[in-house]
Structure formats: structure tokens, C-alpha cells
Design goal:
By secondary structure, the chain is of the alpha+beta class. The chain is built from 20 helices and 15 strands. It has a 6-stranded antiparallel sheet with strand order 3-2-1-6-5-4. The longest helix is centred in the middle third of the chain and has 63 residues, at 225-287. It is elongated and about 165 Å long. 35% of the residues are buried.
Length: 651
């Protein structure tokens, strides 16, 4: 065909033929693109055409259509992937925005990161500003306990480098990557987990890195730039979500604390009102000269409990002005100038509000003021009591009628039996003169208080204090001395030694006996100190036959020290002989005369040895099983001699 002739439609160079060939070569690829076929399916049209013997032009057209279709497919695939990533990122941001609990937020972040990048493992670490490192907080897909407990120092490993530099890092083979500072602990944890490819991006708030978000696989993998950017964008949302959760947690905590503070304020307002009420009432009590009972009644009503004042059994360790708990009770000591006056005890309140504790302490202080006021008012009376006792000691020739009248004004009954007590505080050897003077003053004050409460008399004398106290029915001089030593020692927090005389019947009728009784009490006091029994109380009868020397011929009941000693030592045996008509005293005398030999005793008494044994057994039951000990045996022999002398005089 000549150039001037038009080309036939079936000729290969005819435009219509070329258009038909192109559309026929593009048709199968359009179908493949339409159904989203896999990349290897795009080879099939070329292979079929070659098998059918198609022309080279057809094969070339199919090849060109295939490459163009693959480019279109890749573009469509990228767009679909970016669309899916953006959709997932939006859904993630939406989900995170709805979470309020920090743990739930962190778990959602890690789960969505693993899903977005399609990795086997995802995890998140948070920075520890105190320790200066970053630690694993949440993991997803991890199986190694050692890996889950890793802590990475700043700059160590991939995560430490991300946390330090605030830049993302990725590696397709962690152990072969020299960019990271490898440590044995980190490498062991990564190896246990089996990780190879790792991508880490920083979690940042402003310019501050708060942690690192990771995606990792257990095989070599190259993380594309789009994946790094995607995880970085997700990390930005995650950081904001973490900050929001933290702020919400702090807000909840602040609201809870505020609510608690409001409750405390409401409670305290009631407590403060009660404290103000008790303050006003206690002030009124002081102004109108109320007593301790008025204080306890007011505080009992305000504290809704039972408050009582006690001046016995107070533990000095609780002194110091503070209320302390004792079991289910609260105790506030009442003291002044170092002297323990007593205590206020609140019963039945094991849990006491601090303000109520201070109320109890303030009441104790008011009680001490009232007691001091009462003491000041009574010091004149105490001086009068001291002057009366001084007259009994120094001027025994005073008219008994005048002594009676003076004692009656002080509510003292000098017609009843009394005991003279000599008391001294046991100050250390290194005490200064000022300290000793102060101790004597404190002792006199406490003794005067004791004398007033017991309707007795007290005076300062010979570096100590002398007391004249009435003797209750059934009581003894020994018991009274012990009670005084305990009371005075407890009040002064110092050992106080007390010596007692034998009872003096009707001191007003026999004023001259008081001076002798005082000397006896002083000798007992000196004996206690010499025997190393400082801080105790005792009378002459407590010293055995030594009491004969201390008593100076006086005794508590019979009026004779000898009779008292004999009665205390062998009185049971004497009384048994009198009631039964036995001969135990004579047996005792013969037993000691024969060197405590039963065999020689039976010859002396002309009885059988069994009789001697039976009598000695009876004596042991009467005197106690230790009557043959050296000390007791000596007292028994002395009592036998004195009894024999008294019997001879009587006959």
C-alpha cells in the first residue's frame, strides 16, 4: 500500500487497530484491579497470550498494561493502607479520649500500637525521674518475665537512647546494631524475649520525654518511614492521653482530699465548739473558786464520758502535761513544780480526738491551779499544825486543855492513838545545798498535805519531816509507815524513808510521850538507812530483837518492848501451853540447853525421844518451819530468857 492510500482498518498500524489492541490488553488487568487480585495474578494474561501464540505486539502491549496495572495497584494499596492507618489513628485517639483510668489507657496504647504496625510484640516504658532511668510499664505479646521487669538507664539500649535523645530509633537486627549501648542485663532480657527488629518512638509532652513506645518483631524487619511516622503520631496521642489520665487521677485525689478535709473541718468545728465551751466553764470555775469535783463534772459532760480525779496509783512516767492512753482510759497528770498531785482519768474513750486530749490536759492544768490555790489557803493551817506539833515535841508541859482546843480547830483528835513518823528524802550524795533545801521544802509540803488529809500534824525538823498521824482500828505502826513512805515517794518522785514509833495513846493527855516517840521513830529511820532499806517504812517491831534497842522500852500494844518482843517471837507457844496445859516452852528451853539434840533433851525432860520429836513438830507448826535457822533460833532463845525472867518476877 502506497503512502498516499489510506490504511486498512485491519492493518496493524491503523489507529483503530492499535486502540483495539490496547483495550484488549488492558481489559484483563482492569478486571484484576477491580477484584483486588494478588500481584502474581498479573503474570497470567502474558503467559496465556504467549501460550496462544500471540504476536510480539500483543505481548508487548500486555507487558506494558501489566506494569501500568501494578503501579495503579500499588498506588491504590498505599492509599487504602494510609486510609486504614488514619482511620485506626482516629479510632485510637477516640478510644483514648474516652478512657479515664491510667492503667486502662496504657494497656489500650500498647494493644493498638501492636495492631497498627502488625508486630508480634509492643510495649511501653515510662521514665523514672527519681531513679534517672526508664522502666517497663506495660507489655503486649511478651512472654519473658525478665524482659517485663527491665529497667534501662538513660542512653542504654535502644529504649534508653530514645528516652535520652527524644528521637525515634529503629533497627532491623538489634544485636548487630552498633548504634546502641549494649549492656548484659538489657541484652539478656531482649534475648529471652527473642526480639530482633525493634522500633522505639518517644512519648513527649512539650519538650519533656515521659517514656518510650515500642513495636518489635522476633524476625528481621525493616520499619518503613511511614510506619515510624505512624507510630510517632500515635505516640503523640498516647502522651496526651497519659497526661490527661494523670491529671484526672490527680483531680480525683485532690477532690477526695478536699472531701476528707471538709469532713475534718465539720468534725473539728464541733470539737472546737466543745473546747470553747469547756474553756469558758473552766475559767468560770477558777474565778468563782470551784473545786476538783466541779472540774471533773464539767469535763465529763463536755467529753461525754466519766472523768475522775485520783491522787493514788498515778504512774510518774505519765507526767509531763500530756494525756496518755492507759488501756481503754486516758490519763492526764496533775502536777506543779515537779510535784505529782494526782491525775484526771477519762474512762471508756479508747479513741480520743486530739482536741479532746488537749481539753483533758487543760482541765488537768486547771485542777493543778485549784489544788495550788487550796494549798496556798491551807498553808496557814499547815503552819498552825506544825506549831502545835512543835509544842508537843518541845514544850510537853503545856496545858492539856489548850492543846485540846488547838487540835479541835484543826480537826485533829489527840485523844485517839497516834503514831509519830520521821521522814527523810533520800537525795544523792552529790546534791548541792540548794537542792537539799528544795527537797526538804517539797517533803514538808507533801507531808503537810498528807497530815491534813489524815487529820494529823506535820512539821519540818532535823533536816526532814516529823508527822503525828492517827492510828486506825486494826492498823499497825508498820503499815502506817509503809503507806507514808509510798505516798510521799510517789508524790515527790524520790525515795522517802519513814521510821515509825510505837503507838502513843491519847497524846494530849501525855504530851511528854511525843518527844520520846519521835526519838524512837528517828532511830528506826536511821536503822533503815544503815540496813540499805532507803525508800521503805518500818517500825521497831520490824527489826526483831534489834527493835528492843530502837524502841527504848516502849511497845505498840502492851506498853513494854520486852513483852512485845516475847509475844511476837514465842507468843503462839506460850498461848498454846496456857490453853492446853502442855509443856512446849519448857521443852524449847531444854532443847536449846542441850545443844538442839533430841536425844539429850529427852534425858533432861525424862520423856521418850518420840515425845520430844512430837513436841518439836508442834512447835514448828506454831513458829514456822524456819524457827531453827540461826537468826530465828537466836531470837527464840532470847525471848525464852526474857519470858523466864518475866515469869520469875511475877512469881
Amino acid at each position: 500500500m502506497s503512502p498516499d492510500q489510506p490504511a486498512r482498518r485491519d492493518h496493524p498500524d491503523h489507529p483503530a487497530h492499535r486502540d483495539h489492541a490496547q483495550s484488549s490488553s488492558e481489559a484483563p488487568y482492569l478486571e484484576l484491579l477491580a477484584r483486588g487480585a494478588a500481584p502474581d495474578a498479573y503474570e497470567r494474561p502474558v503467559l496465556v497470550a504467549r501460550a496462544d501464540g500471540a504476536s510480539s505486539e500483543t505481548i508487548a502491549a500486555l507487558e506494558a498494561a501489566k506494569h501500568q496495572a501494578l503501579r495503579v495497584r500499588a498506588e491504590l494499596e498505599g492509599r487504602r493502607r494510609r486510609e486504614a492507618e488514619l482511620s485506626a489513628l482516629y479510632e485510637t485517639a477516640h478510644d483514648l479520649a474516652g478512657l479515664r483510668d491510667l492503667d486502662a489507657v496504657l494497656a489500650a496504647i500498647v494493644q493498638r500500637a501492636r495492631s497498627l504496625l502488625g508486630t508480634e510484640v509492643a510495649y511501653l516504658s515510662l521514665n523514672d525521674p527519681v531513679a534517672g532511668d526508664t522502666y517497663m510499664r506495660v507489655t503486649e505479646g511478651s512472654v519473658s518475665a525478665r524482659f517485663q521487669e527491665l529497667r534501662l538507664g538513660m542512653g542504654e539500649g535502644l529504649g534508653g537512647l530514645v528516652a535520652q535523645t527524644a528521637r525515634p530509633y529503629a533497627t532491623e537486627s538489634y544485636f548487630d546494631d552498633p548504634r546502641f549501648q549494649h549492656t548484659g542485663i538489657i541484652d539478656s532480657g531482649v534475648r529471652d524475649e527473642g526480639l530482633v527488629a525493634i522500633l522505639g518512638v518517644p512519648l513527649t509532652l512539650g519538650s519533656q520525654v515521659i517514656g518510650v513506645l515500642f513495636a518489635a518483631d522476633r524476625r528481621a524487619r525493616v520499619f518503613e518511614r511511614e510506619q515510624i511516622a505512624l507510630l510517632g503520631s500515635f505516640a503523640a496521642h498516647a502522651a496526651v492521653a497519659i497526661d490527661t489520665a494523670n491529671l484526672l487521677a490527680e483531680t480525683r485525689s485532690a477532690l477526695a482530699e478536699l472531701e476528707k478535709a471538709n469532713e475534718i473541718i465539720r468534725d473539728r468545728s464541733g470539737v472546737i465548739e466543745r473546747a470553747s465551751d469547756v474553756h469558758d466553764r473552766l475559767t468560770e470555775l477558777v474565778l468563782r473558786g470551784g473545786g476538783v469535783h466541779d472540774v471533773t463534772s464539767a469535763v465529763s459532760e463536755v467529753l461525754d464520758g466519766t472523768v475522775e480525779f485520783t491522787d493514788t496509783g498515778v504512774d510518774p512516767a505519765g507526767a509531763g502535761g500530756h494525756a496518755v492512753r492507759r488501756g481503754d482510759d486516758w490519763v492526764a497528770t496533775v502536777s506543779a513544780g515537779g510535784e505529782l498531785l494526782g491525775a484526771l482519768v477519762l474512762h471508756g474513750h479508747p479513741a480520743l480526738d486530739p482536741v479532746d486530749q488537749r481539753t483533758l490536759e487543760r482541765a488537768a492544768m486547771v485542777t493543778s491551779l485549784l489544788l495550788l490555790a487550796r494549798r496556798s489557803a491551807g498553808e496557814a493551817e499547815q503552819r498552825v499544825r506544825g506549831e502545835l506539833l512543835d509544842d508537843l515535841l518541845d514544850a510537853p508541859d503545856r496545858e492539856p486543855r489548850l492543846l485540846h482546843e488547838r487540835a479541835a480547830r484543826l480537826h485533829a483528835d489527840l485523844d485517839a492513838p497516834h503514831v509519830v513518823l520521821a521522814a527523810r528524802i533520800e537525795a544523792p550524795y552529790s546534791a548541792t545545798a540548794d537542792r537539799e533545801s528544795a527537797d526538804r521544802q517539797r517533803l514538808w509540803s507533801a507531808a503537810s498535805h498528807l497530815a491534813a488529809t489524815r487529820h494529823g500534824l506535820a512539821a519540818a525538823r532535823d533536816g526532814g519531816t516529823v508527822l503525828l498521824l492517827p492510828l486506825s482500828t486494826g492498823d499497825s505502826a508498820t503499815a502506817l509507815a509503809g503507806q507514808a513512805a509510798k505516798h510521799l515517794g510517789g508524790a515527790l518522785h524520790e525515795p522517802v524513808t519513814v521510821g515509825a514509833s510505837a503507838p502513843v495513846d491519847a497524846p494530849a493527855a501525855r504530851p511528854g510521850a511525843i518527844a520520846g516517840a519521835y526519838e524512837e521513830a528517828r532511830r528506826c529511820l536511821d536503822a533503815l538507812r544503815l540496813l540499805g532499806r532507803s525508800g521503805e517504812g518500818a517500825a521497831a517491831e520490824d527489826f526483831g530483837f534489834l527493835g528492843l534497842l530502837l524502841a527504848d522500852g516502849r511497845d505498840s500494844r502492851a506498853g513494854s518492848a520486852i513483852e512485845g518482843f516475847v509475844r511476837r517471837t514465842i507468843g503462839e507457844v506460850v498461848e498454846y501451853d496456857r490453853r492446853r496445859g502442855t509443856d512446849l516452852i519448857r521443852t524449847l528451853d531444854a532443847y536449846f540447853a542441850c545443844g538442839m539434840s533430841p536425844a539429850r533433851t529427852k534425858d533432861e525432860l525424862h520423856v521418850h525421844v518420840n515425845t520430844v520429836a512430837q513436841r518439836l513438830e508442834r512447835i514448828g507448826r506454831l513458829l514456822g518451819q524456819d524457827w531453827q535457822s540461826p537468826a530465828r533460833a537466836l531470837e527464840v532463845q532470847l525471848a525464852l530468857r526474857l519470858h523466864g525472867l518475866a515469869s520469875a518476877v511475877t512469881r
